[in-house]
Write a structure and sequence with these properties.
This protein has about 240 residues and is mainly beta. The protein has 3 helices and 14 strands. About 10% of the residues lie in helices and about 50% in strands. Strand 5 and strand 6 form a beta hairpin.
């Protein structure tokens, strides 16, 4: 359980900075992806691994984790989450905007928001842009209510695909860098096979998270039973 809490803290810290969007996929589709994430902090590596099932336009994600321990994480755009432990037959109920599926790193790509990755819907505005050969650089200003989290964001596109973004605070210090690599086209969506996030912590340390996405499939190529997974009715509920 401690390992799961550690994973959630890492996910939330990044989600706060990256934010979310209210735009949904325009058509009904289902996709499944194998995710393996490794987070390095203070010389220790935390590995998380899961098979994730995306259901649109509902925006529902069902994640079957194998590491650091076995559990199922079910979430929706409203931030309603259920964490089911099959061995203990126990389910934890959560309701928090931080758990919304719109904070999933692939959400913007699956909904084809490649230009701004949801920044515009968060209230950020472009204040500067420039062409640098094959690269388009846009700079975004956060609204006042976000300044305690992020002030400015710089995003770099290559061939219309986002490959890098950096987040800075009101002191001009970079607090987050994100790299998107090796894109794959699935059902009309461009999906990065790797996302690397570097979080610069206030104490001068940093947290590096590398996530690889493989076995990217859609429709009948996925295990249909996983899309219909339901938590047993006799599971013990914990809030």
């Amino acid at each position: 359980m401690k390992k799961i809490k550690a994973v959630l803290v890492i996910l939330i810290s990044i989600a706060i900075l990256i934010g979310g969007s209210d735009v949904k996929a325009q058509n009904s589709r289902r996709m499944c992806i194998h995710m393996k994430s490794q987070t390095l902090q203070e010389g220790h590596i935390l590995t998380t691994e899961a098979d994730q099932y995306f259901i649109f336009p509902e925006g529902k994600i069902i994640s079957f984790f194998q590491q650091p321990e076995e559990y199922v994480f079910i979430s929706n755009p409203l931030g309603e989450a259920r964490i089911y432990h099959p061995i203990q037959n126990k389910v934890i109920l959560e309701s928090n905007e931080l758990f919304t599926t719109r904070n999933n790193s692939l959400y913007f790509f699956l909904t084809n928001q490649l230009y701004d990755l949801g920044l515009k819907n968060l209230g950020l505005k472009v204040y500067d842009s420039e062409d640098d050969g094959d690269f388009l650089i846009t700079r975004w200003q956060a609204p006042i209510h976000m300044l305690d989290q992020v002030d400015k964001i710089e995003m770099v596109h290559e061939n219309m695909l986002p490959i890098y973004s950096s987040y800075s605070n009101t002191k001009g210090e970079i607090i987050l860098k994100v790299y998107f690599e090796d894109f794959t086209v699935v059902q009309g969506s461009q999906i990065p096979n790797r996302i690397t996030e570097i979080v610069f912590l206030p104490d001068g340390d940093s947290l590096i998270k590398r996530t690889d996405y493989t076995q990217i499939r859609s429709g009948d190529e996925c295990d249909q039973a996983k899309f219909n997974f339901t938590i047993p009715a006799n599971a013990t509920i914990s809030k």
